[in-house]
Design goal:
mainly alpha
């Protein structure tokens, strides 16, 4: 067993039981572990901290940015975008929030237009 076994899961406990200022340095360290599973748990702890506190430290934002939205930090970034107020986000996450909101709105319009066309087609077929 490696020395870092359990450190990522311990970071989740820190997010629940310690203040953000106390937990942040340890969570950041856990996000840099070589074991991918433990790093994933550390990013889960980051998302949990965002949910519980409505904010993150600059160090945690830097860890999220370093990992990227398509990496292990995907759900932590999504949690941060959901639970941290827009004005409290760093600029790179504000851009991500705007991009995500616009993309979701466009997808919604596209799906609704498809349903409308399908409904109209069904009405026309029934008239024959």
């Amino acid at each position: 067993m490696t020395a870092e076994w359990g450190l990522g899961t311990a970071a989740i406990g820190l997010a629940f039981n310690c203040s953000l200022a106390q937990a942040s340095p340890r969570i950041v360290r856990a996000t840099q572990l070589p074991d991918l599973d433990q790093r994933a748990y550390a990013f889960t702890a980051t998302g949990t901290a965002a949910r519980l506190n409505g904010e993150l430290t600059p160090e945690l934002y830097a860890a999220l940015r370093a990992e990227g939205h398509n990496g292990l930090a995907e759900f932590a970034i999504d949690d941060t975008l959901t639970f941290v107020p827009f004005h409290a986000l760093p600029p790179w996450l504000r851009r991500r929030k705007v991009l995500t909101t616009v993309r979701n709105k466009l997808e919604s319009w596209w799906l609704r237009s498809g349903e409308t066309v399908e409904d109209a087609w069904n009405v026309l077929r029934r008239r024959r």
